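2024-03-11 09:14:02 DEBUG pipeline.ingest accepted 1 chain
2024-03-11 09:14:02 DEBUG pipeline.ingest length=379
2024-03-11 09:14:03 DEBUG pipeline.predict start
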Amino acid sequence: MKKNILFLILLSFISIAGQAQVKPVLGTASSFTVLAGTGVANSGSTEVDGNLGMAPGNNLTGFPPGTIRGATHIANAIALAAQDNLTTAYNSTAAQAATQNLSGQNLGGKTLKPGVYKFDGNTSFTGDLTLDNDGNPEAVFIFQIGGDLAVANNATVLFQELAKPRISNVFWQVGGNVTIGSGSYFRGSIMANQSITMSTGATIQGRLLSRAGNVNLTNNIITIPTDLAITKTKSAGINNPELYSVGENITFTITARNLGPLDRTNVRVNDALPAGLSYISSTTTNGSTYNPSTALWTISTLPNGATETLTIVTRIISSSTDFIVNNATIAGDGFDEIIENNRATVNVCVSPSNPGTIAGQTSVCINSTGNTYSITPID
């Protein structure tokens, strides 16, 4: 009897574990902020941060006065391929096993953990919905809605403050139409079978993807977070790869990367040389510019998947502590929700300027923060 109970418990655990949600793969549709089946209609000063497309329809109105900071693809091969990829993602998302069935319930006022939440018919959303990823920023949230999704005015999708979920990991698969109310703040990628309507002043951080309908906009802001990253390395020391001396030259190599999914403009890298380092020269790739006076490296456009490199040659002129700490940061136009890779730090371990005769090791750099030390000459 005990063995049977244990077997049933184990079987239940395996069944629950087997229901873990899988992040939908959007394919080429991921490069679109707005993608429609029949057309896109805008009224007012809507801002689309990224690419806009439609297929098989070709009806685009309201741009200008609306602005598109990206490419426009109307009933061409790129838009058609994106629609095909959207259909594949839509169907695979709809087929995932539900973690919980919330049919008939209002999403507002709920705090939900990662999972697949199913609604058999129409669904309403009033007030605030909080997504709590249990400290895992890569956790996936999927909402399967069989009918229409109606988001009330001033509704908000909130993220738990600690280890916020990634917007790119939140998906709304909707079998009918989607209406986002005025003044609402929505997050995630909407994959709708029919039309999507953004009411006046609504904002979404994510995507509006309609398979067979229209996307209707009115004074909205639509943006996809795009991940910019920076790394930094230093040349090896003359006598020791990790030990440097006053008067020695050291070269820093800074690499800026766009991890996507959108192109980014006006990318700025700040690399102010700390005390103890003197600027000698610099080189950049592909026409980007570095101004040593302002310590600003400017890249006018950094396409999705692209990499640019800045090399700075410096001389160590002094060291008041055992470490010289050199930081670089990156930012661009648009929203970047992954900030952990927006900063790079290199520590330079410098020997004392005039150590005289020292007992023991000449290097006093022990950890990444530096240490207080004293040197006693041997008589």
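2024-03-11 09:14:41 DEBUG pipeline.report Residues 49 and 376 are 62 Å apart (CA to CA).
2024-03-11 09:14:41 DEBUG pipeline.predict end
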